[in-house]
Amino acid sequence: MMTMQMTCADIARSVAAKYGLTLEDLRQKTMRRDICWPRQEAMYEIRRVWGDLASFPWLAKFFRLRDHTTVIWAVRSHADRHGLPHVTNSKNTRERRRISTAAWAERSRAKNGVDIPIPAP
Asked: In sequence order, which ranges of the chain are alpha helices (DSSP H)?
């Protein structure tokens, strides 16, 4: 059972051990399925446990990937493959985006006199 006391490296190591791999195996730049799928599971678990604290760009650096979009794709594909809930956007992220959109709409309304609908929470 993973707890908040576990670091991201601890979570990745426990997933790697489940598949008979090491953390360094997961951080290899390879697309072999026997490495990729455990890596995707590790990214999913880290994101599930730590949420926005483990940002996509940070996870990309941790796993030595090119950019954050690889992490987004990996987390979503793992969730889809196993029928798990998506953990790509937490409630806080959605709320920040909604507030940001509302602020943009307010500025636009003030500048242009155009009423832009604000998304519901």
From this structure: 8-18, 23-26, 33-50, 56-62, 68-82, 91-112
**Domain range list for the chain:** 8-82, 89-121
**Amino acid symbol at 83:** G
43: three-class secondary structure by DSSP: helix
- Spatial distance between the Cα atoms of 63 and 115, rounded to a whole number of angstroms: 44
Q: Does the pLDDT of residue 40 top 90, yes or no?
A: yes
Tokens representing 1 are: 């059972």
Q: What is the pLDDT of residues 70-81, one digit of tens each?
A: 999 999 999 999
Query: Which residues are CB-contacts of 25 (< 8 A; sequence separation ≥ 6)?
Result: 16, 35
Q: Which CATH class is domain 8-82?
A: mainly alpha
